[in-house]
Write a structure and sequence with these properties.
The chain is α/β, with parallel strands linked by helices. The chain folds into 2 domains: 16-142, Nucleoside Triphosphate Pyrophosphohydrolase; 153-268, 3-Layer(aba) Sandwich (Rossmann fold). It has 7 helices and 14 strands. The chain has helices at residues 58-70, 132-142, 171-180, 188-192, 202-215, 227-238, 262-268; strands at 16-25, 28-34, 45-46, 49-51, 72-83, 94-106, 114-121, 148-149, 152-153, 158-163, 184-187, 218-222, 243-249, 256-260. It is elongated and about 80 Å long.
Length: 274
């Protein structure tokens, strides 16, 4: 590629940066109908989005654009892709970063840039502006899931069971408890034993556990909040994942598990931190 200069100012031309949003729920995607006659694809449905302001992070830009165009407050879920074809926008070279977002609150309302806002079934979309059909196809390919397979329920949430080595003896009981509650348990002691008996590095184990937590829907904490458990709690709070806390009464047969508060666990087991 050769660099081009602007004829009026003499500076090298550089691409503009924009963002596009996949706002989705229950198999539907939110689309807006473009309202400005002076812009490309007037009166055509498109993904919410727009240009990134100077000094603005792209993640903040897409949340702002969705709010301005739809009236919904959202949160970024994942990066879908980067779209940089020079001809994707007839005005000039515009690079777009596409994200999927989840709705937190608000209600739909049009703006000066949108004359209609509507939820569309993914398999029944209207004609779309720019390369937004491609972005939606990439999103669908990256999130392919089934809700049922051969009669099995495939929609159960994954729960990471956070527990200290002091309650390793209760791992199977904890897994049974989570299953009885209607969830799928993920337990590091049943996955990795006690750190695979030092066959691999602790760093690799912790990194593996963190990756698993990142893909789980919720974190359930059982028993003492040790330093390792505390790090898992901090990580899930940062990721805004739901967290529940449980105490294990091991002086009875069988052991009893009851839901408590985080404060209760920290106070009861404040002497156990390693």
């Amino acid at each position: 590629m050769t660099q081009e200069k602007c004829k009026s100012c003499g500076q090298y031309k550089i691409p503009s940066l924009s963002v596009d949003a996949i706002v989705h729920k229950e198999g539907k995607i939110l689309l807006v109908k473009r309202a400005k006659k002076e812009t490309p694809f007037y009166n055509t449905y498109a993904l919410p989005g727009g240009f990134v302001d100077y000094g603005e992070k792209t993640e903040d830009a897409i949340v702002r654009e969705v709010w301005e165009e739809t009236g919904l407050k959202t949160r970024v879920n994942q990066l879908i892709g980067v779209y940089s074809d020079r001809d994707r926008d007839p005005r000039r070279h515009v690079v777009s970063i596409a994200y999927s977002l989840e709705v937190l609150s608000g209600r739909l309302k049009t703006s000066s840039e949108t004359k209609d806002i509507r939820w569309f079934n993914i398999d029944r979309l209207p004609r779309l502006a720019f390369d937004h059909k491609k972005i939606i196809e990439d999103f669908c390919n990256s999130t392919k899931k089934v809700s049922e397979y051969n009669g099995w329920n495939m929609n159960k949430k994954l729960v990471f069971c956070s527990q200290s080595r002091f309650y390793m003896f209760a791992s199977e009981l904890i897994c049974k408890f989570v299953i009885d509650e209607g969830y799928v348990p993920i337990n590091s002691f049943t996955n990795f034993g006690y750190f695979l008996h030092e066959l691999v590095s602790r760093h690799d184990i912790v990194e593996g556990i963190n990756n698993i937590i990142n893909h789980c829907h919720e974190l359930w904490v059982f028993g003492p909040i040790t330093e390792g458990v505390d790090e898992e709690i901090k990580m899930c709070k940062k990721l805004s994942k739901p967290i529940r806390f449980f105490d294990i009464t091991d002086d009875e047969t069988p052991c009893l598990i009851k839901e408590v508060t985080e404060r209760y666990l920290r106070k009861k087991y404040k002497q156990i931190r390693t």
